[in-house]
Write a structure and sequence with these properties.
Layout (H helix, E strand, L loop, with lengths): L1 E7 L4 E6 L2 H9 L13 E3 L17 H22 L1 E2 L4 H9 L8 E2 L4 H9 L19
Length: about 140
Amino acid sequence: MIRYALHCDDGHEFEAWFGASTDWDDQSARGLVECPACGSRQVSKQIMAPAVAGTKRRSAPDPGAIRSMMMQAAREVRSHVEANFDYVGDAFAREARDIHEGRSEKREIYGEATAAEVRALKDDGVPCAPLPSLPPDPAKLN
């Protein structure tokens, strides 16, 4: 199989696969290749780099770097919530339900809830999500 980058006379770009380069030549000469966007049969190949076997593959990402990025993102989410949401402590489930049902003013909150309370909130369609837990900040340890 061979893949060609193609374009039509209206400027649409697309790709097509052929069994061999002679298949492209044959189908193009017979007007069988057409632009999927506009139907034009004035289609030609674009210049493209060939896929070469044995080229260097990208190495897998460093798991330590991925963990570090994820921990940084979790810290940023938690920091944003703590700075911008109202902390309601262990009254979270009750307060979230009251806000959802219009019995309390609409505002962003965070707090504590048991697994059973969270399940009940979700079952009733009350939107909630856990904050990411974080390991202690090494800079703040003794």
